[in-house]
Amino acid sequence: MSPYMHAGGTCLSTPSSLRGAQVLNLATMKRTKTGMRPPHGARAGTRLRLACLLALSGLAGCAGPVSVRQVSLVHSYRESIRSTLLGGAPSDNTLIVLRRHALLATWRAHPDRAIAALRAQAAGHEDVGDVLFALAELSYRQGLRHHHAPDFLAAALYAYAYLQPGQAGETAGYDPRFRQACDFYNFGLAAALGTPVTVASGTLALPFGTIDLVADPAQLRWHGRVLDNIRPTATMAVSGINNVYRTPGLGEALTAQARPDPAVTPGSPPVPDTDASFSVSDRLRVPASVLVEMDNPRAQVLGTQLHGRLVLRVMAPDTATTAIDGARVPVAYDQTAGRALALVDTALGTKEYRGFFDGTTFDGTRPRLVAMTPHHRGNMPVIFVHGTASSPYRWASMANDLLEDPRIRDHFDFWFFSYATASPIPYSAWQLRQAIEQAVAELGGVAADPALGHITLVGHSQGGLLARMLVIDPGSRLWDGTAGRPLSSFHLDAKTRALVKNTMFPTAMPGIDRVVFISTPQHGSYLAGMSVARLIGSMASLPLSLSETAREIVTSAARDSPNLRNTIPRLGSVYAMSPRSAFMRTLPTIPIVADVHTHSIIPVCGNPRDLAHADDGVVSYESAHIPGVESELVVRNSAHSTQSNPVTINEVQRILLEQLAAHPNLSPPTTPWLAGQ
Predict the structure, then answer these.
(1) pTM passes above 0.85
(2) Could you give the domains of the chain?
(3) For the packed helices 149-163 and 176-193, what is the interaxial angle rounded to 10 degrees?
(4) Of all residues in the chain, what percent carry a pLDDT higher than 90?
């Protein structure tokens, strides 16, 4: 045995005195090669030195020097968060457990054997928490390798046992493994429960046994609706919305479709009447979360016959946390994915251009006013009205951001109006009025809920003109200014005369407190006056009933003015929004009623010093500006479609909070009130 080896064979460092011996030995060897034969004593010393040199060479081969090197902060952080959640090697914490239990080599060669051996060693071991975390991570890695649901479920249960929420000695939040264990639990459930998620009692397989889950079927009924088509959001990527909001916590984040429950109103159809003007969307989706809870999880998870509960939570102020063994545990939700999927499911975005060119798109085929959430007593409606060749999709980012403010989410309901945007503005405004009246009536009226009498209209572009039509009392001024002669001079049948009265002789609608005009051509759009825009406008069709009415009006007028015979297409919104049209010259002269609060949000391209010559690419500042509004915000460096601009969104938020402050005594939201209940 070398004098520089431990008894166990461990290499020692080379003494500094021997390093000189190496040099001397080399010099002696050199002299021998040149023919200088050393004396006998020298030869003996040479042999000794050569033996030492060979020993030292062996020592150098088995040396394992400890080193420290500088790394970047980015590298350091990347190493600290490495885990199988990213699809690669296990975290350092798990590798430490494998080494300390002499299972690292087994893991690399036979992963399932390593997990089984580690599981067998966990019971009663002082580092059981460390072992449970390692088992969660290693099981998750096996799930990724083999796409095996039992492995993912095992990962979730091990992680739950590691966290042991509500138990004495539960993991501290400062431990970086805490957040990773939450993710192993949440993502493990997402992979194990599949798509769609079935919330029902049953037995699920595990690599080491089974778990019997109990689920209360009453969880699937939510405020008069049945929850189904429950889908995980972990594998959904949302685009087209500025910000994606998630609520951190425990549980698999879901989006659940909430369909009307026929049991609530016997004899009612399972989906809303499609001829109605108002509906809580039949494709309403709500953010939800599902948890698998176990009693005494650390003892159970090391057995073979496990028992637990499948708990479904729908996002609401009282479900932000869930009670587990006496502790309040935050619940994970993905609210933006649910909102986005609800918009996609309604397919309203596919009707943007069809709704412009085909005037029958929304006539008797689907609700024109859609609520994306059930109405809560005490919540004030906010009605969003889109512009030309547009749809409710254009409000997605604004609604998503506004709903993240709990003051707005808990005190307002968002409704979205759709219409054929090439139809005459007075006709579309009349449809909006009808839809609002029907919605308020279906929800019990103002007598049942005073909040329904405090409506805010938010209109973009042409939508702002529709909103304005609901807050004026023009008498005959609008008709006379547009038609050029009194209605009494036209020979019309009763049906046609009634339609004209409804559309061209509006009155201020009760219950509208506030109007927000965004990019609204109050004096017309210069773009609408261009020949190309007028050509496109001529391609749009009008609703059949409106075409017949227009034909009768024109026929009657043509008796005195033959040149009016071919002007039916010019009744459309594109012609009306031209600054030269009689309608647009008349509407701005009619004041908004005094008790309605009005606000203007006006985008302009660039950062002009002189607003008199500024525009947003469609509407000039001078056209959008009207005197007498309570507030006017100019959004610089913004084009016409400013609904997603954060400055615009912040201003709408400020206005809604102002509306809330003006009505502090409305009943707080409690139980949702659905149409038909």
Answers:
(1) no
(2) 79-190 (no CATH), 191-263+276-337 (no CATH), 365-539+579-661 (3.40.50.1820)
(3) 150
(4) 58
